[in-house]
Amino acid sequence: MSFPAETQLILTTPDDPRAQELMDEQQRELAARYGDDDDPEPFDPAALGGSGGAVLLALEGTRPVGCGALRPLLDPPVPGTAEVKRMYVRPEARRRGLARRILTRLEEQARALGYTQVWLETGTGQPEAMRLYETSGYQRIARYGYYANHPLSVCYGKTLQEG
Description:
Blueprint: E1 7-12, H1 17-34, E2 54-60, E3 63-74, E4 77-89, H2 98-112, E5 117-123, H3 127-134, E6 139-141, E7 153-159
Parallel strand pairs: 4-5
Antiparallel strand pairs: 1-2, 2-3, 3-4, 5-7, 6-7
């Protein structure tokens, strides 16, 4: 039996082609789960960079296997609140705790950037994501912003404790 190379989590930029590749894969998977008629949120990767944002990449050796990102919550703007975006782990790297590691590191990064809480959105067609968030201390919150009128959206929030 062979084991995967140790997984490293690194901060990168939104224009990193490895992160873009994973985010594109995520969009294809979401289209397969929800259908092409789903109305995805308009997304500008540049919103993940710069002040208040972060992009995290998971690498096994040199191969990208997962990602996640933070940005300031924009819709509605809530002071001290970051939004977790683009959480994704490739199918062959799932069920090993990698998504939880990415989420934990994003929370650490959010605290370092001065955020006091994080919000995120997932969908009813992603029960594994819902389970991850619920077992990581997230509470369901009202659908917000772009997702307010999307019945398949499920939103979560978490208050960040002092590190």
